[in-house]
Amino acid sequence: MNNxxxxxxxxxxxxxxEGLSSTEDLFSTRRKAGVDSFQxxxxxxxxxxxxxxxxxxxxxxxxxxxxxxxxxNLPEVDELITSSDIRIVLINGVFRKDLSDLTALPDEVRVxxxxxxxxxxxxxxxxxxxRMLPLSDHPFQSLGDALLDDGLVVTAIGNTDxxxxxxxxxxxxxxxxxxxxxxxxxxxxxxxxxxxEEFRSQGQVMGNTRWGIHVGDECTLSRQRILRPGCDVVxxxxxxxxxxxxxxxxxxxxxxxxxxxxxxxxxxxxAGGHTDLFxxxxxxxxxxxxxxxxxxxxxxDCTSREIYRGVLGGKSRGAFxxxxxxxxxxxxxxxxQSNDAILLSRNSEMNTRxxxxxxxxxxxxxxxxxxxxxxxxxxxxxxxxxxxxxEARRMxxxxxxxxVFGEIENEGLREQIIEQLQAAMPASECVT
Amino acid sequence: MSENEKxxxxxxxxxxxxxxxxxxxxxxxxxxxxxxxxxxAIMGPNGSGKSTFANVIAGHEDYAVDSGSVxxxxxxxxxxxxxxxxxxxxxxxxxxxxxIPGISNAYFLRSALNAVRRxxxxxxxxxxxxxxxxxxxxxxxxxxxxxxxRSVNDGFSGGEKKRNEILQMxxxxxxxxxxxxxDSGLDIDALRIVAEGVNxxxxxxxxxxxxxxxxxxxxxxxxxxxxVLSQGQIVRSGDKTLAHELEREGYSWLDSGDKPKKSEADQxxxxxx
Lengths: 432, 273
Ligand SMILES: Nc1ncnc2c1ncn2[C@@H]1O[C@H](COP(=O)(O)OP(=O)(O)O)[C@@H](O)[C@H]1O
Ligand SMILES: [Mg+2]
Known about the structure:
Chain A is 22% helix and 41% strand.
């Protein structure tokens, strides 16, 4: 990033960060650290190994540095079928209790803002917080820290079940800018949560989301993130730790975002832990979708599965970097990773980097990557049955992502996601 | 062929059709007329162009039509996309049905049926009506209902794939069905069931072109006309007895360079027209 643009961010950052400290004092250290770190490191260029396939140049545009105002409108998009009546609404990165509905929340589940949390929490909880959301040199995390205002904490303890819909809405119609949200999810004592995070955005907006997630022993967290069409710049960072016999299932689906970077770090810390990391997308134009995953098999007898599938048209680019780190004691690890892409045009591109670091000897680790084209034989077969070329192409999106979305239990939601991706399927270039 | 036959209403009129694959000519002047309700068999050795012909009629883009014409119910078939042809009532049962992992057979069939119905300006069928329809058709071809929820042809046995083709035909209700080696890979019981399914769909104005290498299938699906395709041309035509003759004599006479000989079978057709 050039100096001038960085200067623009830095000036804006210091001002905004200091503005925040007058209203809320608990996070001043964190904010200060975030400002310092970002000013020192800025945005990495593409020469940086971790950012080789994703250019952050566009973020130097003047539009992004300012934080979006807290009030804003919900972008108009059809409601998702969620089968949950617990709803958390965040507008421009701010938890809006007034728009949220927490009445159906079980007693064992608590949803609160950071400030409430920090005042209420015991030492153990504060310790968890600091462990799950450590200070860091990561550019987006530094920004999130620097501009930390309030965040979201979801805590579920005990034998409980809940489905929560979190709506992240960004409104950049009047003024462009960024929004930063940091959150923590803590499950303990066998709790089971399903969290659907829906991202809706309009205008020029950079949405920066960071989660620290603890899935305790025998707990289950199923998370689905849906990027609705129209998101501009999406940055997601998740750090997850999974305890004994814990289960963390993650799915990210989307289409029509200009730049998506999804970073997820899962550490399997207890025997019998399992994680599923799934992703499916359709891209077009000059969109970029970059999934960056790390799975730490820290102990023996854990399993993991990753499936990412993208259909890329236009000049869009996809990237997948998947690290599987099997620690020395992690015997009987079973890890499967796959990344597959269909390129619809000559100018679309997919870059896959599997990284396996295996220090145990009794492990099963497989990884596979494929890049192909639409199956012409299948297209003709469909057309020979009366299905139009465009519909046949859309059906191929359904076919290709079936493994990714097949396990979504709510059929209505599954259909909505598939239909969103199908609708994003670029039209064929030569219509016959 | 007499003037009369030419002028009678034809469902398919193929005139001097030349087609090639990757610049290699395969069909070299093929002529064929099919009337509504007729069953024609096209026989011929491997590589003679039977599947090429079937694919050209269905509109496969790998096959380039170099010259000639194909009229379907009087309209220029070669002008239509594959999906338009299907919606107009042409159905090709593939020699090698394609598998589509990730799309259930039920979803595939319903999408196809509704696409055809939309084209015909009929209302779409909902899941319940569809299931009822498809169940009755599955019984017709002796197909296990479990195959509905499986991915299209994915992991199907040879016989299951062929039955699935006939099931699709039964559901889509075509006017002209081309069966490309539907008998290959079927044991005798499966062959009989598939043939019975086809026979149940015979009648009225529905026409069939049954492409086969062996005469065996034609014992069950008895054709009105039999044609021999060799090197991209129909070199002999006759009635069903021609199939038996070919069974006895094989196709070796085609290579001998002899002029195709006239037989009793040829005569009968000549007289009939
Ligand atoms: N898709 C194709 N690509 C290349 N050659 C083909 C293709 N389809 C058919 N051919 C060639 O065309 C000729 C006729 O093949 P085909 O129509 O399949 O014969 P048949 O069905 O009578 O056995 C063969 O020589 C075959 O190799
Ligand atoms: Mg063939």
